Amino acid sequence: MDAPARATWRLIQTLPAPGAWNMAVDEALLLGMDAPGALPVLRLYAWEPACLSLGYAQPYQDVDLQALMSHGWELVRRPTGGRAILHTDELTYAVIGPPDEPRLAGGVLESYQRLSQALLQALLDLGLAVQSQEQAGGAPNIAAKGPVCFEVPSNYEITVDGKKLVGSAQARRKEGILQHGSLPLYGDLTRITQALCFASEEARQAAAARLLQRATTAEACLGQPLAWGPAAQAFSRAFATRLNLELQPSALSSVELEQAEHLAKSKYRADSWNQRV
Asked: Is 149 marked active-site?
């Protein structure tokens, strides 16, 4: 797949932040894509404190709120689909661009495959023996049950030895396209099961066991922890080289900050959004 003509994107790296703020920033950047001269964005970030995110249409009833609060974890609903992710000890990336950006052209799968070239290159450069493979039948396993994102197979997911390493999802609006995803760097993936509802403790333990069979972390693959900084550097290098980009380091503008603050307060911290399903 040939890279499109060279283009300039913004590279935004933000300090670890609460989940509502992170989702608000992604949406603020997306809403700004219809402004004249707006540049596409590669954003790299982390979460503090740990936060459970629900997919756009995932039932709020999946959450064990008392357990979540007992761990000091937050809750937010993503603007993208999929199932629950516990964001902690990870690198999160977001790609935001207008509909006419060639790297985002076509359908969800086509644009994801194009962006995954950069994701795969970054992970290979970090020493991870990753692959991207089509699911049998050419489609996600929509019959798979369970509230955990990394437990559910998806098409062209990025894996190591058959275990899912990166989870990604898209949102598409008239202003543009948002794709974001998470790379678990280290830590215990099964922590997420402590914040979700299951029929019994046995069902919770079974879900944790399935998760370890189907997903992994960079640390588990490399035999040592992978820090956020080197991972972010690998991502920015790979996006620049594989997608033929000049990445321009950038900060959020005053307009973007104001929009993000409004969205965080009115939407991503609000029960009307987080409990909408």
From this structure: yes
